[in-house]
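During the no-cost extension, the postdoctoral fellow (Dr. R.K.) reprocessed legacy sequence entries with the updated structure-token encoder. One reprocessed record is reproduced below for audit purposes.
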Amino acid sequence: MAKKTETFTVGEDVYQITQLGVEQGGDLYHDLLKSVGPTIRKKLGNLQELIQEGDELKTASNVSSFIIEVMENIPKELMREMRAMFKATTNVKVGELFLPLSSGDLFEQKFAGRISAMQSWIITCLRHNFSDFLPSKASAPSSPESQ
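Re-encoded structure tokens follow.
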């Protein structure tokens, strides 16, 4: 199966994101599981119960807390590596064109003063690369449009 490229709308931004290759993606997945696996195992049971109860507001609130807790447990160096990997596989819509997020200072310009937008982009990249990494019914910060 080939690496899949999909278009995602995240807030006001539109991205084309291509999945990582198996070597790079596999290594990242391993590092993520080592750093945030214990948090996920501890919290996932509660989330699954809430999802089954069907309380969407309570579930959304808990999913947001879950995502924040997972993100805060990712070591700074791993977060830097993820940003570098994901910006190399992301194009962002600027006007009518899609430009590589890694070109020039586009990444800096796109996310300067918009850290939460950057976090939403990272979460979107994680979901695109590791669809089984986050709970399947988690409220998504993005909407995929198949490419």
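The CA atoms of residues 105 and 111 lie 10 Å apart. The first strand starts at residue 5 and ends at 10. The remaining legacy entries will be reprocessed before the final report is submitted.
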